[in-house]
Amino acid sequence: MVSAPPAAAAPAVLTLAPAAKLSRPQFLALVAYWVAIGYLWQSLGTLILPDVVERLVGSAAKGTGLSVLEGIGTVIAIVWQPVAGTLSDRTHTRWGRRRPYLVGGTAADLLFLVGIALAGSFWPLVVAYTFLQFSSNTAQGPYQGLAPDIVPEEQRGTASGFYGLANLLGILSGTVGGGLILAAAGRPAAVASIMALLALGCLATVWGVKEPVRPLRPGGVGPFLGVVRSTFLTPLAHRDFLWLMASRLLILMGVVGIQSFVLYYFSDTYFHGSTRAATGATTGLVGAVILIAVLVTWPAARLSDRIGRKPLIVLGGLLAAAGVSVLLFSGYRWLPEQLLNRLADLLALPPLAAQTLLAGVLLGLGFGAFMSVDWAYITDVIPIEHAGLFFGFSNIATAGSGVIARFVAGLLLDHFNARGELLNLPGGYPVVFTLLLAWILVGTLFVLPVQRGHHP
Fold first, then answer.
1. Of 56, 103, 255, 416, which is most buried by a Cβ count within 10 Å?
2. Residues 284 and 399 in one domain
3. How large is the average pLDDT for residues 376-405?
4. Hey, CA dihedral for 366, 372, 377, 382, is it positive or negative?
5. Is the pLDDT of residue 219 over 90?
6. Do 195 and 110 sit in the same domain of this protein?
7. Are residues 191 and 328 in the same domain?
8. 243 and 338 assigned to the same domain
9. CA-based angle 279:263:327, to the nearest 5?
10. pLDDT of residue 291
């Protein structure tokens, strides 16, 4: 049997003194950049890039064009963000370990966003987008290491709640705000809104929180190959962290799978190609998920400080699985007919389509519970002095979940849709929903072996 190579030793850094408690304004400043990141990638990836690509390459090649950009972005996010986080762990400056990367990466973001706004053909767009991925991940990896440096252990649940809310706010504002600006004023204005929010978020975080990290010894970051080796081998020695990453990957694969295919589901099942009607139903379902998640995240985060992180992950996974089950059997009416008809009239949807609103509620409860403790649980099980490395590495699960879910589920959807109905739905959707349900349940089980972490 071949054994895995030993993890590379990370350089010694000063063990931090206990951090002072953060005030609410300091928490808001800390997560301001997280809102900006969410706005950037939600508005750019969901709205602006699809519009730009279709204009540049035409409808017939838009899928291929988007796939090229998504593939490039995923590879860079998976490989470079962890390396940037490790570099920040080893960086020694009077401005701290994280802030030089945050400021430099954001400044470069603004430059490459201008390139995207002005791109007049596809390949200049590819170049600008590639460099944007490098610059953004240069900022994101170290930024994710900043909070573990400054948040005291007793406030991790609170910090996780702020991060969860900031993430959801970024997604919501990117979808609604970015969409309204794009529709009313066009691509340059939409990109300018991203640039403004990134700059403001960066300034708020840099000036609003203090970074107390001081290195044990001066010196450079070390040989680059050593940085890469440490980045991808050090986490392998931390069993609890690997279980959490496997759990995170699978749960996010289930959630992202719903997001990726729900438009097709409504179109194929209830509206038979009517894009406008399917988009309205999709907006309602996704909106319910986000709204419920926003309402749940903060109280769930505070609750995790009392009962621990693991119960919230398990509860969230079971609720999300119940939501997927609603979609799996959505070809049947199982709510009282009178109630269902009233709901359908209220939402202006077919009765069975209106019934899926319950899926949105359950998924929102589950996703909110997961988001409320995700950051805190990772922080609980990693060595804090190497937070940039570990949080950068955790992006492998975040970025990889969408690629895996869309690739596997997409193939199954096309294959089984061509074979007729199943459970009163086009045949691909029960197969895909069953797969997503299995991913969420297995991901929930994978959190059970985690031993370390916050315990009340």
1. 255
2. yes
3. 90
4. positive
5. no
6. yes
7. no
8. yes
9. 120
10. 86
Which tops the pLDDT comparison, 53 or 197? 197
CATH of the domain at 350: 1.20.1250.20
Distance CA 161, CA 372 (A): 5
Query: Which residue segment(s) compose the domain that 55 sits in?
Result: 24-207
Same domain, 408 and 302: yes
Total count of domains within the chain: 2
Tell me: the pLDDT tens digits for 33-83?
Answer: 999 999 999 888 878 888 888 889 887 777 788 878 888 988 999 999 999
Query: Do residues 258 and 180 both lie within one domain?
Result: no
For residue 18, tell me if it sits in a domain: no
In a domain, 229, yes or no: no
Rounded Cα gap, residues 445 and 408, in angstroms: 21
| Phi, psi (deg, nearest 5) at residue 213 | -70, 135
